[in-house]
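Contributing new records

If you add data, match the layout below exactly. Sequence lines come first and carry their own label; structure lines follow with theirs. Keep one chain per record. Anything else will be rejected by the validation script.
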Amino acid sequence: MGALDGYKILDFTTLLPGPYATMTLADLGAEVLKVSGRDKFDLVVNWPPVIEGAQVTGAQAWLGRNKKTMFLNLKKPAAIEVVKKLIMEYDIVVEQFRPGVMDKLGVSYEQLSKINPRLIYCAITGYGQSGPFAMKAGHDINYISRSGIAWAAGRKAGGPGLYNFQIADVAGGSMNAVSSILAAIIYRERTGKGQYIDVSMQDSVIPFNSMDGASFFAGGPMPTRESGMLNGGGIYDFYETSDRKYMSVGSLEPKFFAALCIGLGHPEWKDGKILKTDATAVKETFREVFRTKTRDEWAAVFSKLDACVEPVMDLEEVSKDEHLVQRGMWPDVDVPASASGHVQIKQMGCPMHLSACPPRYDHAGYPEGFHTEEILQSLGYTEQEISELI
């Protein structure tokens, strides 16, 4: 039994934040039906490559995991009537349009909650439902830029640095949507009442300023690049090796710094006193020492030391990492509707490890709209009506 068995979610989201949130809920047992427009381009759904022998891309197979999918043209009044029928059964909604769009279509929280007062309705946007920026478009890079995070990230010489993952989208929008929906479910179980959830991706990353933010608002200095303990101002950093790969050093506490010094051949510094008198010289020395061996040679050295020093690995290496394999983070998932009838693909698993009701991986994502006829026929629509609805 899944943790969320019996909960049914109507998913109107695209791109990454909403789909990742609903995938997480689906992994935990919720029944998710994704509703999309047949002719609406979704960058993530079309992200190459297409899986060999299947009709979906890798991203689509991942984000569509454990979900059903149907087409509806929400600009047609008859399609809105379909949503109103579904809302009696699918009593959690997740949407990702700009503020006001769902209201104009006739499927806002106010409109649908009159049909089902137990409705939990989660809206994910860049800047939230209120404020001067509410209608403004944005992407992850914009949210972290306007949150203060990018100001102190990167290098003095090169400016802010890009990561190849979406901090505000996933760690911010997706996970706040998941936690908010779970909180609303608990509230509904206690009171019988649904509610509206306003998730802003910019809001979500404000707390990611963490120590710098807490210190600044308590009267501390404005954080700048390579000035703090955690953004390159100390030994906490990446270090190039002789084969032009990298090691990560997180040896902040005294015992870890002592182990780092031993591993790098400078046991005379292990008491840490030199960090108070000549920290810059220490870091430069460490950079020179790391360049004397390959990454794998250093990984072997520090595998025997409790120093918080680890290699920077690529995805192929990570997918074979025995620790993550043992943790079940790379499940092989069946890809449905494939030409051969049976294709499996390795996917990134759900990080929520529940002992009594662990995540499950019933199937990868279906092609967009795959369940349209099945769903609409179950509601009593004819083939001709279905053709018009999509």
